[in-house]
């Protein structure tokens, strides 16, 4: 039996999640603390920070904003422009950029910002995707590294001292207390909480023809470089109440486009729109830990009173962890062909990373699947 949070639908199998005596998870407890926050004071605090770091003379940018072109980064840029800041927007190109993702990046630029897109060597990247999927069951490992390293590298390169990140993922999604309350993103944060699963960049050198020179953009700047420029990173979600759904509504008024239906395996049409590989990443989260993107989205709604827990259970049962036959409309076969992998190899890797105790098995002990090829969890709620 999987034990779930009594307030939301996170299972105890979620990494770094803890439960209190009432069976409430740390993500819910952390969210609850938001009610005590004096948001007006936090906003003043942010204005003070931005004043301190503002370039002033018009000779440089006031801050770096890492942007994927998604709803959150579109909202961040709208917010910062509204506060009179002049950001340099930096995109670390996603692994398998969708047409919709491209249109949303172009839309973001039209908000009126300078923008840099750093695209790493795709030949090397494909090898890294393949290797990370096969070795640690996370196709997005290289992307989750460069979305952090590239904006920090650009800050050093352009001499911009302030980086404004979006939300602290450890806050809404639960994590160690120190990570959730930290309002700054540092090397330590990245190493401990950035989801790098214990694989280090230096581990890659020498594998499948990868050399140090291929990994320049994957390295976090040195402490000396950071100190020389005086780079600080803050989470905007610490200073303004953060809600992905609201961000999407705001972003749409500024031209942000959504997917025409729910994204596969999710309960939203307004996020994770830019990378065909994300569906694979989320599927692995499901087979390893028993929850996928649909659970994350349902929980965000439950905590904000927009969805009853009992309805969410049924929605998650229908949508969460769907086998990724397609991701953002592209077939699994096509997506895998890009990283030189067959569907058969993919299925073997899936099997290796599936936590078999979480799913229904047949009399032979093999994983049972429904008519659509989806795994079925042993239980979807507490008894
Ligand atoms: Zn919870």
Low-pLDDT parts are 175-181
| Fraction of residues in H or I helices | 40-55%
Oligomerization state: single chain
Largest beta-sheet characterization: 3 strands, parallel
Order of helices and strands: HHEHEHEHHEHHHHHEHHHHEEHH
What is the tally of beta strands? 7
Strand content: 5-15%
What's the total helix number?
A: 17
Helix/strand class: mainly alpha
General form: globular
Read across the widest sheet, the strand sequence of neighbours is 1-2-3
Small molecules bound in the structure, each named once: zinc ion
Question: How would you sum up this structure, described in words?
Answer:
- This protein is 44% helix and 7% strand.
- It has 17 helices and seven strands.
- It has helices spanning 26-32, 39-53, 71-82, 99-109, 122-136, 141-158, 169-172, 177-181, 187-193, 201-204, 223-229, 244-253, 278-289, 293-303, 309-319, 332-338, 343-353; strands at residues 63-66, 87-92, 114-118, 162-165, 232-235, 326-327, 330-331.
- Bound molecules: zinc ion.
- Zinc ion (ZN) is lined by residues 5, 7-8, 10, 24-25, 27-28.
